[in-house]
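Researcher: Go.
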Amino acid sequence: TYAIAISTDNFMSNIKYVQADNTLGSNIFFQSYALWGGTSPGTIIIGLTPGTTYYAKVAARRGTFQHGSFGGIASAATINPTLTFSLQTTDKIVPPFTIGIGTVNAGQVTTSWQKVTTTISTNANNGGIIYLNDVSGGLVSATAGSYKINSVANQNDLNGLLEGYGARGISVSGAPMEIVYPYNGGGNTVGIINATKRIFADSSQTPVTNGSASFELQAKASTTTPAATDYADIIIVVATGSF
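Model: Structure:
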């Protein structure tokens, strides 16, 4: 059986040992080569500090209560986590951003004339994720007595509804970005926007550089929707790395 020693100062004083759960501890721990992961997939060590050089060496246990000397030292450096994110609309690259839908006629689906583009870069092992949510769960008019054109439920085709509102992903660039349900519909099929954060796009659990995904808003009024000029919503876009 074998033990793995880890140090950040080339074993001058700061010495830890990899444990059964792959974390680092103060007590030496032995297990078989197979349990350490063998040639593949090897051993994953949990709890390391980013941006740090680590030194490792291995000892074999030759019998009960005894082991040989530790072998040669190998070293590797962890990297610092990175995440950059940008947001822009068709006609603005700096905030505040406004998305205009225009006049929403009864019985017709209207699409925002500005599109929103999100761009993410991250070295996270499991990639980058972009979320959407909003404040009101629909388009609200104060002058119409707080009447709300409610967001669709989950994913829905506005053509089949009397009234509704939602977001639809329209394009991606920079592999491996993808738009996911409920925002991956076509035509007038849109996804729900409410207080719950939902994944709009991700990088397929892979690190990504300048991965972009764009979306538009669509709305439909019914013949009984009160007329007003102040229907509005506040949309929140969040980007994270899955490290």
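Model: The chain has no helices and 19 strands.
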